[in-house]
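Um, can you check?
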Amino acid sequence: MSEDNPKSVPAAAVLEASKGMLQRQLFAIFTTPTDGLGHVFANIEEHLQFQVQLEKDGILYAAGPIWTDDEESWEGEGLVVVKAASRAEAIAIAERDPMHKAGARSFRVRPWLINEGSVTITLNNSSQTFTVK
């Protein structure tokens, strides 16, 4: 492997290269069924209650199902993004999820650095509605 085309670089180099950007460290929890969807659906209610509580506690950044590539079905995969002080803390959060505690899904936690992007929220006072784009 040549030095001008490395397969990886230290995180410090990425942080230095993007030093003017947001650099918000979050953790992505990729979750996958262990044995079909029966066990997933058997635990879905408790799982969703857990997710809502994470949201209320200010821990959950975003979560939801991952569709198949054709966008026509779901094979039980999900993505949960949490705010945590470390990967170990994010793993502990994932381990508390009823879906994982029941063995219906396995998970993998990856650190994710947010640098770019935007969120637009429009609040309509007259109708008391909002949109997120």
Q: What stands out?
A: Residues 22-132 form a domain with the Alpha-Beta Plaits fold (CATH 3.30.70.1060).
